[in-house]
Amino acid sequence: QIHRADGTLPRELSKDPQLLARLTSMVSQPPSLRGLARCAVRQSLGVQYLPTAVEQLPLPESVKEYVLLRD
Fold first, then answer.
1. Which of helix, strand or coil describes residue 35?
2. Which of 35, 42, 57, 58 is the most exposed place for a label (fewest CB within 10 A)?
3. How far apart are CA 71 and CA 63, in angstroms?
4. What is the pLDDT, as a whole number, of residue 40?
């Protein structure tokens, strides 16, 4: 819910129509479970060099490619 309980928009959102459009889109179409899983894997690897870290994971190659945004 982007609007306040009284139905008004926060001032910051009323000043920035692009931000409002982006947030409205995010609220109406939440990310897929697949996308959330990719973010979780990438975040759990921390600051390591991502290709090396992903290569060491016990995952199928197709999943590794997805995590590395190569899908």
1. helix
2. 58
3. 9
4. 96
Q: With pLDDT > 70 as the criterion, what percentage of the chain qualifies?
A: 100
> Amino acid identity of 22?
R
Alpha helices in 6-56 (DSSP H): 11-15, 17-28, 33-44, 50-55
How many C-beta atoms surround the C-beta of residue 67 within 10 A?
Answer: 22
Q: What separation in angstroms does the CA of 41 have from each of 37, 67, 69?
A: 6, 7, 12
Q: Which residues of the chain have pLDDT under 70?
A: none
Intra-chain end-to-end CA distance of the chain, in Å: 32
Question: What's the confidence (pLDDT) of residue 37?
Answer: 95
Report the pLDDT value the prediction gives residue 28, as an integer from 0 to 100. Answer: 87
Q: Angle at the Cα of 34 (from 59 to 70), degrees rounded to 5?
A: 60
